[in-house]
């Protein structure tokens, strides 16, 4: 009685003295099938221990019995060279230990509950993020390819280092920067070339990249955050060569119209691309036009271009594509400068479109005319599920028009009209309608679930 | 101690671990685990049941209601919380967009300002450059200095303007730097706030989730309690009922057991007595039966032997039977075959004979026709023959008559010329007759017979004429009665059901046939008249009724009637009598009687002799004549010879010689 808390408090001390540890003296432990009181270990165990010790020189695993295999895997060191382990060990337990040892904090759920995938993805990301052009040997990356190509499905590159040799000539002016990029200092500013990597990763589905330097602190310089034209070219070619890519995200990388066009040109008719995210960039109307072109020459389901500089004409181009599109489900244009011109165009397109479900038009300087067209959309379109109009000055009249539109709608389950100056009454009415729709959808969902359950049950 | 106990309790209450040091605790942990497993299993089963039972669902409505309510509340809370958190983002967005508009505006203003400034400075610069040319024109140093100083002033002004502008811009930059820092700070604050709110939200949500969970649990617990108490009450009630019943049953049983024991004792004693009696009786029975058994065994032995023997015999017979059976079967099949063959043959035969019959009938009809035809022809030929006969007759008669006449003539000549006797013509009556008289006599006979027949008929007709219809009937009836013996008994039996008239008719028919045969037989046998008459009188009742005088006539008529069909061939040809004709012709031949013929013979001979003489005389005459001629010739020759030369005599002699020869 008095011992149990004591043992719980000092387990290592108790383990030193075999006799003192009551667990060690037990003849049977129901939960541990390998437990035995015999002091002399089994020969097979000795052999297995030997295998574990010499695993690096002579990896023997597949030939073993399943029981022995577990035993070996449990005891293998996580610091074994990857050349040995990568394609040999598929057991998640081992890779879990590797991950835990290396990073400590891990969330395996975002890696499809595969520790091995997590290990290799993060390993490759680390290598690329620490890659310094001209200084690091590209073989360090290429050497990893045969080891990890089968396990890497997503690459989330959160930084890309520029070459160490800092061009002294560069000035603060953007123009001179780009000129120098094109000029003699050009090669030295380029980042890691993805062309050598992406076409070799045959299972890559998601690719996130940010052309910036993390944690530069007081060493900040503009040219650390540069996405050169050559970078763009190589990246675009690499993306084109990667046929399995589903999700592409390029954040905060100063992608301007020209680069956007270059990227889009190479992404046209991509066989598997479903999601494109170009948020926090400098895309203007020409880039938007290129994106509009891409919309109908790919199978995009989700397009996110918030926090860019798209204005009316660009929005019109996107709207024109949207009217003819039948694959896009989600469109996010938050924090652009669409104005009434672009807003109306998008809304007009929605009158024809029958696939779009989520639309975000927050912070786009839209006013009452857009609200009028949108109310029409609400009446006619019954595929739209969610619409976000926050931070647009719709005004009292716009709110009333929207309220009328919402009264005839039964599909929208989310409608964000915060900070739009629509007046409390309209706000309340709209939220009421949305709640009704939600309830209906919920009951519908429940009944469907019940049906599914009963059908399963029988 | 108490602390320890508490601690232990706590640990047990929390989670009794299987890894614990205390064996009891481990046991408890395992028990708990097993219980949890079995409960899970039970729950699964119950869950299956509950799916099927809707009543339980109905009862569980309350808890479900609670769950739904909680869900709704939680969704609301969540959305509210999300809104609260996102409010910051939205505010930041709006601020950012506002900032952008402001920046844009400022940018526009700045550009405008810069452009204005550039324009004005350009003007100023142009003025300065213009003034340079003016200054170049100046000759006077003082002026030049003035202008230079003025230029310097202007340049300073321009530079000052520019500097001012730069200053302003720098100020703006500083401002915007400040603003950037402020924004950063603000955003940092926002982020902090957001994190704080999120944490609050998480905490709050967690708390509310827990509350809701507690509430739901409470409601379930409550329901469970209600159910439990209800069930327990029921259980207790049923248990009590059962207890009472069991008690009652036990009491009854005890009572009954006692009763049965008494009864059993009684029965046992009775049965023992009975058993003894029966045992004795049965023993004797057994002895008797054993004896019988011995006897029966002996008889059995005997019977067995007999039966064996019989069995053997029967077996043999059976074998024989089977053999004969098979033989018979074979025979039957063979005979069946024969029968079939015969049947086929018979059918063929029938068919053949039918065909033959057909052929024969055809033949018969044809022959009948031929026969009729033949008769017709015959009649025709008979007529022709008669005619021919008559003609031939007439011709011959004529010829004969001519011959007779010639003979008579010759006779007359012989008599008158040779004998010189007077000839008298013999009476020749038949010479007057012409044509076949005999034929006419046959016809007359015929007609005579027919006349007789007619006569008889007439007499019959007279008879029948006198006898009325009534009479005939009566007569026939009499006939029937009298000649009843002629009718067969069978016929009588057959006729009995018929009417009287018909009966008599049939009877008559049979009688007549019989009597007819009898009479026919009599006629054929050429019985003597008297006998026949007797016979007819005795056997044919008809003759009784015919008068005795008429019998002969009737019979003749009858025969005539019956012979007629047999004698039509004699009608034309056989009816002639040759004797008369022969006599007739004889008479013709005997026109010259025997005596005369003798005379004729003698005469002939005499004449023959006379003839011969005459022929000799004629011969002599001729001879003498020839000799006379020869003489004359010779005389001539001699004369010639005498008168002629010597050479010629050879030839002449030769001719002479030949003539001489000839004469010789």
UniProtKB/TrEMBL annotation, chain A:
SUPFAM superfamilies: RNI-like (SSF52047). Keywords: Cytoplasm, Cytoskeleton. InterPro entries: DRC5, Leu-rich_rpt, LRR_dom_sf. Gene3D superfamilies: Ribonuclease Inhibitor (3.80.10.10). It is found in: Cytoplasm, Cytoskeleton. Its main location: cytoplasm. The keyword Transit peptide does not apply. This is T-complex-associated-testis-expressed 1.
TrEMBL record, chain B:
Component of the nexin-dynein regulatory complex (N-DRC) a key regulator of ciliary/flagellar motility which maintains the alignment and integrity of the distal axoneme and regulates microtubule sliding in motile axonemes. Plays a critical role in the assembly of N-DRC and also stabilizes the assembly of multiple inner dynein arms and radial spokes. Coassembles with CCDC65/DRC2 to form a central scaffold needed for assembly of the N-DRC and its attachment to the outer doublet microtubules. This is Dynein regulatory complex protein 1. One of its GO terms (cellular component) is axonemal dynein complex. It is found in: Cytoplasm, Cytoskeleton, Flagellum axoneme. It comes from Hucho hucho. Residues 440-450 have a biased composition (Low complexity). Its main location: cytoplasm. One of its GO terms (biological process) is axonemal dynein complex assembly. Residues 1-77, 440-465 are annotated as: Disordered. Residues 583-642 form the Dynein regulatory complex protein 1 C-terminal domain. Residues 36-62 have a biased composition (Basic and acidic residues). Residues 90-191 form the Dynein regulatory complex protein 1/2 N-terminal domain. Residues 104-131, 159-201, 240-377 form a coiled coil. Belongs to the DRC1 family. The lineage of its organism: Eukaryota, Metazoa, Chordata, Craniata, Vertebrata. Keywords: Cell projection, Cilium, Coiled coil, Flagellum.
């Amino acid at each position: 009685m008095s011992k149990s808390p004591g043992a719980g408090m000092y387990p290592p001390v108790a383990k030193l003295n075999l006799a003192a540890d009551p667990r060690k003296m037990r003849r049977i432990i129901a939960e541990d099938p390998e437990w035995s009181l015999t002091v002399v270990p089994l020969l097979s165990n000795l052999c297995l221990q030997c295998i574990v010790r010499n695993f690096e020189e002579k990896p023997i695993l597949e030939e073993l019995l399943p029981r022995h295999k577990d035993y070996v895997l449990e005891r293998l060191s996580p610091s074994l060279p990857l050349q040995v382990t990568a394609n040999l060990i598929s057991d998640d337990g081992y890779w879990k230990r590797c991950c835990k040892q290396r990073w400590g904090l891990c969330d395996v759920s975002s890696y499809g509950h595969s520790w091995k995938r997590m290990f290799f993805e993060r390993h490759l990301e680390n290598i690329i993020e620490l890659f310094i052009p001209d200084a690091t040997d590209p073989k360090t990356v290429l050497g990893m390819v045969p080891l990890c190509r089968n396990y890497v499905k997503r690459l989330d590159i959160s930084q890309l280092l520029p070459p160490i040799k800092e061009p002294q000539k560069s000035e603060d002016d953007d123009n001179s920067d780009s000129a120098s990029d094109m000029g003699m200092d050009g090669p030295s500013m380029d980042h890691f070339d993805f062309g050598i990597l992406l076409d070799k990763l045959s299972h890559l589905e998601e690719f996130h990249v940010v052309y910036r330097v993390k944690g530069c602190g007081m060493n900040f310089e503009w040219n650390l955050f540069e996405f050169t034209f050559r970078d763009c070219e190589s990246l675009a070619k690499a993306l084109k060569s990667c046929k399995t890519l589903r999700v592409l995200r390029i954040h905060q990388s100063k992608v301007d119209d020209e680069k956007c066009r270059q990227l889009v040109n190479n992404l046209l008719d991509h066989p598997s691309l479903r999601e494109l995210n170009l948020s926090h960039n400098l895309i203007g109307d020409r880039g938007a036009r290129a994106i509009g072109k891409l919309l109908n020459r790919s199978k995009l389901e989700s397009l996110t271009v918030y926090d860019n500089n798209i204005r009316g004409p660009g929005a019109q181009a996107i709207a024109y594509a949207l009217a003819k599109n039948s694959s896009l489900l989600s469109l996010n244009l938050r924090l652009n400068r669409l104005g009434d011109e672009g807003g109306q165009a998008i809304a007009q397109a929605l009158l024809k479109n029958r696939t779009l479900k989520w639309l975000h038009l927050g912070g786009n300087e839209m006013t009452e005319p857009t609200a009028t067209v949108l109310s029409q959309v609400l009446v006619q379109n019954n595929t739209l599920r969610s619409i976000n109009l926050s931070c647009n000055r719709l005004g009292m009249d716009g709110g009333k028009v929207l309220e009328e539109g919402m009264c005839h709608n039964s599909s929208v389950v989310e409608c964000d009209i915060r900070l739009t100056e629509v007046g409390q009454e309209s706000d309340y009415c709209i939220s009421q309608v949305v709640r009704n729709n939600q309830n209906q959808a919920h009951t519908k969902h429940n009944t469907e679930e019940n049906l599914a359950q009963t059908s399963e049950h029988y | 101690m108490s602390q320890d106990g508490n601690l232990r309790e706590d640990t047990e209450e929390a989670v009794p671990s299987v890894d614990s040091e205390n064996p009891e605790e481990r046991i408890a942990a395992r028990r708990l685990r097993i219980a949890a497993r079995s409960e899970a299993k039970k729950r699964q089963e119950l869950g299956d049941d509950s799916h099927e039972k809707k009543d339980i669902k109905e009862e569980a409505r309350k808890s479900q209601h609670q769950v739904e309510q909680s869900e709704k509340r939680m969704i609301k809370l969540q959305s509210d919380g999300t809104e609260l958190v996102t409010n910051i983002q939205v505010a930041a967005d709006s601020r950012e967009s506002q900032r952008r508009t402001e920046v844009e505006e400022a940018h526009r203003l700045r550009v405008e300002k810069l452009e204005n400034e550039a324009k004005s400075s350009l003007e100023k610069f142009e003025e300065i450059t213009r003034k340079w040319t003016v200054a170049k024109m100046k000759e006077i140093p003082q002026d030049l200095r003035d202008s230079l100083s003025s230029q310097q002033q202007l340049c300073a002004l321009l530079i000052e303007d520019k500097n001012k502008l730069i200053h302003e811009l720098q100020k703006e930059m500083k401002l915007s730097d400040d603003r950037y820092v402020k924004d950063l700070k603000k955003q940092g604050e926002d982020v902090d706030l957001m994190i704080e709110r999120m944490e609050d939200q998480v905490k709050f949500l967690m708390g509310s989730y827990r509350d809701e969970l507690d509430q739901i649990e409470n409601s379930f617990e409550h329901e469970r309690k209600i159910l439990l108490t209800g069930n327990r009450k029921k259980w207790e009630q049923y248990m009590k009922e059962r207890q009472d019943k069991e008690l009652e049953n036990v009491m009854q049983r005890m009572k009954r057991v006692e009763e049965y024991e008494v009864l059993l004792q009684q029965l046992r004693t009775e049965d023992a007595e009975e058993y003894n009696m029966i045992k004795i009786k049965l023993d004797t029975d057994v002895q008797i039966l054993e004896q019988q058994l011995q006897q029966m065994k002996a008889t059995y032995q005997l019977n067995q032997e007999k039966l064996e023997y019989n069995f053997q015999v029967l077996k043999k017979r059976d074998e024989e039977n089977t053999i004969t059976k098979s033989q018979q079967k074979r025979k039957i099949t063979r005979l069946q075959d024969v029968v079939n063959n015969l049947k086929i043959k018979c059918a063929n035969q029938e068919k053949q004979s039918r065909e033959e019959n057909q052929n024969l009938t055809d033949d018969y009809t044809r022959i009948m026709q031929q026969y009729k035809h033949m008769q017709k022809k015959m009649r025709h030929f008979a007529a022709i023959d008669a005619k021919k006969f008559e003609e031939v007759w007439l011709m011959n008669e004529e010829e004969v008559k001519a011959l007779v006449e010639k003979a008579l003539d010759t006779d007359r000549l012989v008599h008158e010329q040779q004998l010189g006797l007077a000839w008298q013509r013999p009476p020749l009556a038949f010479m007057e007759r012409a044509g076949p008289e005999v034929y006419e006599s046959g016809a007359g006979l015929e007609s005579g017979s027919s006349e007789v027949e007619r006569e008889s008929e007439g007499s019959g007709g007279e008879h029948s004429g006198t006898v009325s219809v009534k009479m005939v009937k009566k007569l026939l009836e009499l006939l029937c009665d009298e000649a009843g013996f002629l009718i067969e008994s069978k016929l009588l039996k057959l006729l009995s059901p018929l009417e009287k008239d018909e009966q008599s008719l049939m009877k008559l028919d049979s009688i007549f046939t019989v009597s007819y045969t009898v009479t026919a037989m009599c006629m054929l046998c050429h019985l003597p008249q008297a006998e026949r008459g007797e016979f007819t009188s005795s056997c044919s009742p008809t003759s009784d009724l015919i008068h005795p005088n008429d019998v002969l006539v009737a019979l003749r008529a009858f025969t005539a009637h019956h012979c007629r069909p047999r004698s039509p061939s004699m009608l034309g040809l056989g009816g002639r009598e040759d004797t008369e004709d022969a006599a007739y012709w004889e008479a013709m031949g005997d026109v010259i009687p025997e005596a005369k013929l003798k005379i004729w013979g003698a005469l002939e001979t005499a004449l023959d002799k006379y003839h011969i003489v005459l022929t000799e005389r004629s011969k002599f005459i001729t001879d003498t004549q020839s000799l006379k001629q020869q003489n004359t010739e010779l005389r001539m020759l001699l004369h010639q010879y005498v008168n002629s030369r010597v050479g010629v005599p050879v030839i002449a002699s030769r001719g002479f010689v030949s003539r001489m020869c000839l004469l010789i």
